[in-house]
TrEMBL record:
UniProt GO BP: isopentenyl diphosphate biosynthetic process, methylerythritol 4-phosphate pathway; terpenoid biosynthetic process
Functional description taken from the UniProt entry: Catalyzes the phosphorylation of the position 2 hydroxy group of 4-diphosphocytidyl-2C-methyl-D-erythritol.
UniProt cross-references to NCBIfam families, sorted A to Z: ispE, PRK03188.1
Name of the molecule in the record: 4-diphosphocytidyl-2-C-methyl-D-erythritol kinase
Annotated metabolic or biological route of this protein: Isoprenoid biosynthesis; isopentenyl diphosphate biosynthesis via DXP pathway; isopentenyl diphosphate from 1-deoxy-D-xylulose 5-phosphate: step 3/6
Active-site residues, record numbering mapped to chain: 12, 139
Length: 299
């Protein structure tokens, strides 16, 4: 009988985040190109009578341990689906920035689903897990899938995109997080103030072609994030961070998701190192990585 299961799960950067109109349910219709990158959290589910969570790592103090913890909610949803009061101690080791726009909380929820499914011997299909994931949050299904995929609806309806090769990234981490609902709200406010109407978003052909061809300069030119002006409005220092990376020759520079992490596309692993050095003085910390990588897997 398995007494513990560990799952490794990646963070993501959004290569295209096109925000459409606000829907009646409070969400926005999106075209959201997710790209899983090699910043990983690990979630271990250990046999226990009740459901509890513990977080390890530098930013552990920033992660909620109550009902707001998405990993606990994921385990609870899975137990409810199985119709049994299963327990587990979830131990989360964090490397993905907390509230950083890289879907770290969503990644932990996806990892908790995979770990508890195995620990409890449920054997659910990926389709079942994706359905539970979509109810937990818009970014949770992608963390199960990984790779590169376009999300439509509120981001939860996923279609994998073909990608050639590997892209090298540098991430500038900021102090503190940004609230996702607040950033979406600011995006609506800015659009209203400018008299702009949100148009119906579509996948960028240029972006899809660059991914398919492994064309890093082409990808750099087609990166787009409609939430970026809102994130910068709420955190002015991000504009300077982005400029430092651009001045150092980043192929592309953008706020990741709702921020405040900034992502820079490098020409190569060597260029990523050069960018990392340049960015050190323009943010709290710098990490580099590559993508795409697979989604949540048992290790
Ligand atoms: O789905 P999730 O819980 O991650 O979303 C967090 C918040 O982000 C939502 O409550 C909403 O304010 C905003 N959001 C949105 N449109 C989306 C996804 C998220 O407005 N497609």
């Amino acid at each position: 009988m398995t007494s513990s299961v560990t799952v490794r799960v990646p963070g993501k950067v959004n290569l295209q985040l096109s925000v459409g109109p606000l829907r009646d349910d409070g969400y926005h219709d999106l075209v959201n190109v997710f790209h899983a990158v090699s910043l990983f959290d690990e979630v271990t589910a250990v046999e226990a009578a009740t459901l509890t969570v513990r977080v390890e790592g530098d930013s552990a103090g920033l992660v909620p341990l109550d009902g707001d913890n998405l990993a606990i909610r994921a385990a609870r949803a899975l137990a409810a689906r199985a119709g049994r009061p299963y327990g587990a101690e979830l131990v989360i080791r964090k490397s993905i920035p907390v509230a950083g726009g890289m879907a770290g909380g969503s990644a932990d929820a996806a990892a908790a689903l995979v770990a508890c499914d195995r620990l409890w011997g449920l054997g659910l299909t990926q389709r079942d897990l994706l359905d539970i994931a979509a109810d937990l949050g818009s970014d949770v299904p992608f963390a199960l899938l990984g790779g590169t995929a376009v999300g439509t609806g509120r981001g939860e309806m996923l279609t994998p995109l073909p990608v050639r090769g590997t892209f090298f990234w540098v991430f500038a981490l900021a102090d503190g997080g940004l609230s996702t609902p607040q950033v979406y709200g600011e995006c609506d406010r800015l659009r209203e103030a400018a008299g702009e109407r949100a148009c119906w978003p579509a996948l960028s052909d240029q972006l899809a072609a660059a991914l398919r061809d492994g064309d890093a300069p082409g990808l750099g030119k087609s990166l787009v994030n409609d939430l970026q002006p809102a994130a910068i409005m709420l955190r002015r220092s991000l504009a300077r961070t982005l400029q430092v990376g651009r001045d150092r020759g980043a192929l592309g520079a953008l706020v990741s998701g709702s921020g405040p992490t900034c992502a820079f596309l490098a020409e190569s692993a060597e260029h990523a190192l050069d960018l990392s050095v340049a960015l050190k003085s323009a943010c709290r910390a710098v990490v580099s990585g590559y993508g795409p990588v697979p989604g949540a897997v048992v290790v």
